């Protein structure tokens, strides 16, 4: 029912990739992206892990060297997000209440100068929180495949059910985007 009330266009990501490591960061830089707002749980690490592995640490170092400003935005609680972000020296917004705009707007304020929305890319694993929240805020978004769904909380599993219904609506109303982004890869068969 909820998927009938919501505009399916707000759930279409700009990119759909397997993982954060598949982002073409050079192409993003050339497009003028300066800031990355990144979800943590099941985007960077599974729910049952707590810190970045060496590959992620190297990836963040590369992003910083290329001039990207990074902020983590998560619906999870302060201690978990701080434990992950502090060793990486990356700012964060916890208890963001995505898909509400509040967490995204707070993240934008971390950037020292005013930043245009088209200079920002949100990266996350959930259609119902990350993509919808980013689109409602007017931001570009890359949707990644979740790392480990078995360890997800009950409310995330609930969102995954809504996501399946929204994917069907996108397929029906925006078939070209659905095909081009290969969103069928997210459909549970």
Largest sheet: 6 strands, parallel
- What structural class should be given to the helix and strand makeup? alpha/beta
Q: Note the total helix count.
A: 8
Segments where pLDDT lies below 50 for 5+ residues? none
Describe this structure in words.
The chain has a six-stranded parallel beta sheet, sandwiched between helices. It has one domain: HAD superfamily/HAD-like (Rossmann fold, 3-Layer(aba) Sandwich). The two termini are 21 Å apart. The protein is globular, with a radius of gyration of 16 Å. The protein has eight helices and six strands. It is an alpha/beta fold and 189 residues long.
Keywords summarizing the entry:
single chain, 189 residues, alpha/beta, Rossmann fold, 6-stranded parallel sheet, 39% helix, globular
Summarize the structure.
With 189 residues, the protein is α/β, with parallel strands linked by helices. The chain has helices at residues 2-5, 25-30, 54-65, 78-85, 102-108, 127-137, 154-173, 175-180; strands at residues 15-17, 35-38, 69-73, 91-93, 120-124, 140-144.
Question: How are the secondary structure elements laid out?
Answer:
Elements (H helix, E strand, L loop, with lengths): L1 H4 L9 E3 L7 H6 L4 E4 L15 H12 L3 E5 L4 H8 L5 E3 L8 H7 L11 E5 L2 H11 L2 E5 L9 H20 L1 H6 L9
Parallel strand pairs: 1-6, 2-3, 2-5, 3-4, 5-6
């Amino acid at each position: 029912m909820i998927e009938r009330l919501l505009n399916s266009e707000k759930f279409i990501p700009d990119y759909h990739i397997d993982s954060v490591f598949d982002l073409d960061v050079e192409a993003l830089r050339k497009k003028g992206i300066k800031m990355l707002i990144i979800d943590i749980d099941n985007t960077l690490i599974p729910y049952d892990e707590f810190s970045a592995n060496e590959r992620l640490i190297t990836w963040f170092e590369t992003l910083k060297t290329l001039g990207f400003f990074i902020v983590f935005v998560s619906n999870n609680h302060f201690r978990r997000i701080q434990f992950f972000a502090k060793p990486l020296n990356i700012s964060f917004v916890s208890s963001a209440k995505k898909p509400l705009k509040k967490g995204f707007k707070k993240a934008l304020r971390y950037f020292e100068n005013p930043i245009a929305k088209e200079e920002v890319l949100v990266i996350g694993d959930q259609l119902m929180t990350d993509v919808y929240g980013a689109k409602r805020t007017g931001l570009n978004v890359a949707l990644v495949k979740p790392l480990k769904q078995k360890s997800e909380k009950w409310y995330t599993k609930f969102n995954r059910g809504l996501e399946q219904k929204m994917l069907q609506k996108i397929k029906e109303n925006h078939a070209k985007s659905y095909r081009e982004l290969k969103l069928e890869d997210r459909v549970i068969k």
